[in-house]
Specification:
By secondary structure, the chain is of the alpha+beta class. The protein is 71% helix and 11% strand.
């Protein structure tokens, strides 16, 4: 009887051990599966985050390239506009307008002109030849002065019409 009881206790113990092993195996599999799912979920999140960051970097690069292209385009446009004004200045300088300018400043006490225009202005009280004047005249009337040099005329024209010239050239 004791032997039967011992056998019964051993049998029950073995069954409990088997049940515990089964539960442990089940828990182990469950824990491993949950860990795999968390790992896969974390991988997906990391991939999504990497994709987002990659897109952000690509967008920054594209924006940077666009800005650089706009800068280059603006520089080229400015060069064309500058060339247009330079050509206009050459055309104006090729015109014979000095006689009209001399009449416009009649009565000036002192005039500043380019060396080549000194002869035309010899009737003024004081005529000063200036290398920095390409054409035109700067007249000093004592209390006021009038700058109708080509440099000043072109400065005024550039300030006033640069956007209009750009619109005409690049529309």
């Amino acid at each position: 009887m004791i032997e039967k009881l011992i056998d019964e206790i051993l049998k029950q113990g073995e069954e409990k051990i088997k049940n515990i092993e089964k539960e442990t195996e089940y828990e182990k599999v469950k824990i491993l599966e949950e860990a795999r799912e968390r790992i896969e979920s974390k991988k997906r999140e990391m991939r999504q985050e990497m994709d987002i960051r990659l897109r952000q970097v690509e967008n920054k690069e594209l924006i940077s390239e666009r800005v650089e292209m706009r800068k280059i385009s603006l520089l080229k446009k400015q060069a064309v506009i500058t060339r247009a004004f330079d050509e206009a200045e050459k055309k104006i300088l090729s015109l014979d307008f000095m006689q009209r300018l001399v009449k416009a400043v009649n009565g000036a006490e002192k005039v500043y002109v380019n060396k080549k225009d000194v002869e035309i202005c010899k009737h003024f009280k004081e005529v000063l030849a200036k290398d920095n004047i390409k054409g035109g005249i700067i007249a000093d009337f004592g209390d006021t002065s009038m700058d109708i040099s080509i440099e000043n005329i072109m400065k005024i024209l550039r300030n006033r019409y640069t956007s209009d010239v750009g619109s005409i050239l690049f529309s």
